[in-house]
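step 3/5: co-fold with iron/sulfur cluster
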Amino acid sequence: MKIRVSYGTAIVLGLVHARQDVAPTTAYLLFDRGCIGQCSFCSRAHGNERSQKLARVIWPEFELEQVLEKLTTPPLPFARICLQTGYNPASENELKRLARRFIKTGIATSVTLSPSQTALAAEMLEMGLDHVGIGLDAASKTTYALHKKKSWQQDWPPLLDLLQKSGDRIEVHLIFGLGDSEEAFCQRIQAIIDSGGKISLFALTPVNGGNPPEFAAYRRMQAFRFLCEKRLIRLEDCSFSDGKLTALPVTGETLNKALENGDAFRTSGCGNCNRPYYNERPGQLFYNYPRPLSAKEFSEAMATMNLAEE
Ligand code: SF4
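step 4/5: write tokens
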């Protein structure tokens, strides 16, 4: 059996010989038997399993046994494996068998699933998976219908249920840039956190057209997500104008300290997940920093947010 491996992961495993500026800290693998999803922003939608790309990342194929051997040879190259999947209910049994192989290695394993697979998510957590990432992606009913072509009424209630039961092991993936206002986006973040879940934040990567989000708005969403997850602020204490976040309840030096020298602007998700170059090309400004920020990067990110002082 073959499996796709992200280009950066393949370099760390020695399967590809190339240089990279920032190495992944999680092994990103892709199991996709043809996705039947219709997400507007994805290069693999509509069963396009031939596409070598997911987001900006290239995923060459290798023999599973060879990948497993590399992953488990000491010193272990990764402390987490993330098995990304296309939405294909017909291949769920095969996916479970594959996930068992990774769980058996003893390395913390995450799997990404569709919001329509909450029952499978619960079953796989029971099997010994460490975390599950759920690709909700859109933050509201309207954008969910528009970009995921799926029913909010059908998918959101079971997701809430899953969060209430196992939220500390669920990362809900949200993409900023699909047309949700900052206020709608923050409302969804707060609702997920209130139900016990965590957020893995992405910027829209316009592989099928459209525009990436403005940095100012994205930095504000990163700050809100971070402070909200740390229970330092709540939606009700923030100010919005025409859907834009204009002020946080913490400012100045307190805000600087709370954002922990830029950790707020780093990739969010499971432990050790840094996803380099999912949202940007090498050399471009990072939406999600895959490494610690320099003092200059941090002050630039702070200034970009353009929030009211007091
Ligand atoms: S947060 Fe990272 S490691 Fe966790 S499921 Fe999402 S992509 Fe995978």
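step 5/5: annotate
The CA atoms of residues 259 and 307 lie 14 Å apart.
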